[in-house]
User: What shape does this take?
Amino acid sequence: MEYKSIEVLDTTLRDGTQGVNVSFSLKDKLRLASLLDQLGVDYIEGGWPSSNPKDADFFKEVRHLGLNSKVAAFGSTRRKGMRAEKDPSLNGILDADVQVGVIFGKSWSLHAREVLNVALEENLEMVYDSVKYLKDHGLEVIFDAEHFYQGFLEDQQYALNVLKTARDAGADVLVLADTNGGTPPHLVYEVTSKVRESVDGKLGLHMHNDAGCAVANTLLGLKAGARHIQGTINGLGERTGNADLVQVIPTLALKMGFGVLRGKPLSKLRDVSLAVYEMLGLQPNPYQPYVGENAFAHKAGVHADAVLKNPRAYEHVDPVLVGNSRKVVISELSGSSNLLAYAEIMGLTSNKRDERLKMALEKVKEMERKGYSFDLAPASAMLVMMREFGNYRPKFKVDYWKVTSEGGLSVAVVKVNGVVAVAEGNGPVNAVDKALREAMGKAGINVAKVKLVDYRVHLPGAVRNTESVVRVLAQFSDGVRVWGTTGVSANVIEASVEALVDGLDYFLQTSKS
Assistant: This one.
């Protein structure tokens, strides 16, 4: 397969911040720039320096990071009736002291006439003057042809004239932007192919996701001859977002034979994706291709059985390549192979026909019928399996618990192995968690390094048409491992206690100390 190199421009710090509920602190912007540099992107578009003080501050600080990626500043073509050297947007790019300037200009005649209110010839002059001004100051210039696909389909010759004008002024890359995100993939391919035949110079792509096609459009645009792409981490961006580089990059590298990320491995993709979610206080998308928690999760018994025999049976790439890992889920849809994956890890059995394994599976399915779910709580299912295999050794017994809440204060009383403890907490669950740990500590059971890191309540509805139940999911960590447990009851506190006890019990059952 022919080896072809693709330039990647990440615009998470500029176009990504135009998404609703997306705002990076200056510290986060600098941290993300470092992560993107480690990932190996060619360009980091840091922001629009003339639009806000934070972006201007970013360009002052980023130069001290010693990045290998080129840092780009964003702006627009000069204003109508204004000379380029007087334009604040263009001078903002120069003041940012960067290697690369990215400027957008109108390539749709409708926008030139009705939005900018300029004659079509004057719009061409604005494009030419702006590109040449930055080139004359020694910058590499990337020209983003805004609304290019709409413009081409409505007035093909004018859209091409805009590109040729930018090229004649010295633009290094001509970027075709699907600014309203509504162009379907087959038209992106057709239009990009025609542009490749008509215009000299490097072509780029900037796709929005309003029709859910940003990733597909980027890939087809590259097949049509573009060699520069723009996008964001996790597809952040205005309205429904931009092309998700976390999906585009591995597809280019692993499936289309393109060279990306300056030759660096893809294994940092998941870490970068999670870092962006963390900076924004957003829950990661578990279904995100390549890097999502469920991207390589296997729940159906047939799938689990096949993938354990040969991962290629149901995995399109090795998850390790993108920094992810395989997960076999335990549920009512499971076959013996799902439990077998965990049984082998725990050293219980490697025989899928082991009767104890089948008994554990039947117990899990019966519990799911009662409202349990083990998708995110495999540790509870593993405790069931350990009991069926006879290698479960009781470490403690909760003799009694009670929680009272009054006037905003919650107090829990817990008795473990005959030892009583009382604790106040921020709510009943926190109170019983603290009392349970205190009682275990008094009884000589060390669970100090186990932390409750997540707690969720679900309402799965009526079970057996007789009663409504509450399902609690709890996630724990000992600083090395992370595990999830579940509890089910008509009483939310009782369900919470079950999940908490399972979480601490799992730690003790599997701890080597």
